[in-house]
């Protein structure tokens, strides 16, 4: 709710109105906060929160009021209480931010923060490039959309062995752009310099590709990857029998699934691909992120039980309206004070076609049919796709297939994006200047060189 200050506070309420910014002094990855305060002549206050590093925008505080000489902000959703005093010159709020049993100093300065400098990304390729780039379009022959991408070709006559890059979950452009990084641009540059033709493409409904992303599932993205393989095999600059798939995250899983399908890739590189079921992955992902964030065991346990209940509802209730009706009370119990419309939006997202399909996806049957060479890598700091259980499941599945050309490796200190990391949390991705570990690039390049030229 929005609290009403006494009329005596009306002038101070007007003083507080505006934008404020500061850095929360947490011990790990201190986030920048932006608080927007509105005040009326009657003394009514309202406030909203932005956390740019976590992509939070306009999250309303459930309470905003003046108590004597202090500003109090409350968020039931975040479990936050911020109490601060305004400086004599009206330019600074000094107080403490309390959240889930912990507290940190927070000083807010008036105004919006200065725009951050452009991120340093030293691995982004810079022209002139020692290879050729072609903008291409290809059709999914199974009735899917026309997709657009970039084909890079090494210097020289060719034909060349080739690699298709398959992106992770969420709407991704051809560079898999994230937090100022362009991992696929860096990968394509590295592999093309090593003599491979490389195709990277926009997801359906993203960038210059046709189609609709919102209704697509992993099966649709698999079909798109297979269309990219088929397209490359028709290019005169490419060796048609030496075309492989390199996928990241969901794309790594798609690459493995393609290995069990007709006309499989000649070789597969799975980067942080899934080996366990979608349900198991999502539960482990939540636990690892919460642990890395420093959440106490009791709170993490409550959140896990809620997540388990939500996933069970989705898997046992095939129709969305009754599923959402059952999910909203569970979300409300876990997040009191959050508007029901917000909870309904969350439940709707969790019952999307992609989420439902991914939740029930189990790669094991497909893995047991993969006969082509496989390189599976994951970083020990990955909190999105846990390296231990997923790499072990991939190993077991490929062994069941009798596949003897399998290389599986955990890379020490690397996160989900294969950056050298401290915590592995997604909030850290943009703070790291490295886009892709050079040692990981070398492992990939050496393995491909040994397998694609046989």
Automatic annotation (TrEMBL):
This is Alpha/beta fold hydrolase. Residues 145-386 form the Xaa-Pro dipeptidyl-peptidase-like domain. InterPro entries: AB_hydrolase_Est10, AB_hydrolase_fold, Xaa-Pro-like_dom. One of its GO terms (molecular function) is hydrolase activity. Pfam families: Peptidase_S15. Coiled coil: none annotated. It comes from the Bacteria. It comes from Hymenobacter yonginensis. The keyword Hydrolase applies. Keywords: Hydrolase. The keyword Heme does not apply.
